[in-house]
Design a protein that fits this description.
Blueprint lengths: L1 E6 L8 H8 L7 H15 L13 E7 L5 E3 L6 E9 L3 E4 L4 E4 L2 E3 L8 E7 L10 H16 L8 H7 L8
Antiparallel strand pairs: 1-2, 2-8, 3-7, 4-5, 4-8, 6-7
Helix pairs in contact: 1-2, 1-3, 2-3, 3-4
Length: about 170
């Protein structure tokens, strides 16, 4: 399985002004640095490669499969299938949608089993920063503030770890 981000989030979970307040900065001379810290903190948490194992702001991912299973487990919680195609030797690419949801993020494929497939999935708490749980926003701000105050340190503060823990997806 290969995952590719096709529609990135339209926004960041925290604003530059919130991050400035966290860093106790009241001028715009550090905006590039603070924005870089926000983006790095979000990247550490968000999406397929993030430690949360879920998306913060709504985004679309393409999941390329060498062999479509009859039951498709999506890599994010609360994800939905937006579009899908499978490759048929005779007809080429054929559009299909999963037949039914068996559980959150688990779908039964309606056709194409055993064939190469591409599935577009949409995941995230919602399209805006306000949709992201406040605890995750606070964790991002804590990380940004910590990195701003301790520029040589690259660690993730324990208080932020505690805030994200309930939202982390654990794979079994």
């Amino acid at each position: 399985m290969r995952m590719t981000l096709v529609v990135p989030p339209a926004d960041l979970p925290v604003s530059l002004s919130e991050a400035r307040k966290q860093c106790r900065v009241d001028h715009d001379g550090e905006d590039d640095l603070i924005t870089a810290y926000v983006e790095a903190a979000v990247s550490h948490l968000d999406g397929y490669r993030g430690i949360l194992g879920r998306c913060l702001i709504t985004q679309d991912w393409r999941m390329d499969l060498a062999c479509l299973p009859a039951v498709l487990r999506l890599p994010f919680p609360d994800a939905v299938v937006v579009a899908a195609t499978f490759t048929d030797a005779a007809a080429g690419a054929i559009a299909w949608l999963p037949h039914e949801s068996l559980a959150p993020s688990v779908w039964r494929a309606s056709a194409g089993w055993g064939r190469p497939a591409s599935v577009i999935i949409r995941a995230g708490f919602g399209p805006a920063a306000e949709d992201v749980p406040r605890a995750l926003q606070v964790a991002i701000l804590q990380v940004v503030g910590h990195w701003y105050d301790n520029r040589a340190a690259g660690d993730f503060p324990g208080s932020a770890e505690a805030l994200i823990s309930p939202f982390r997806m654990r794979r079994i």
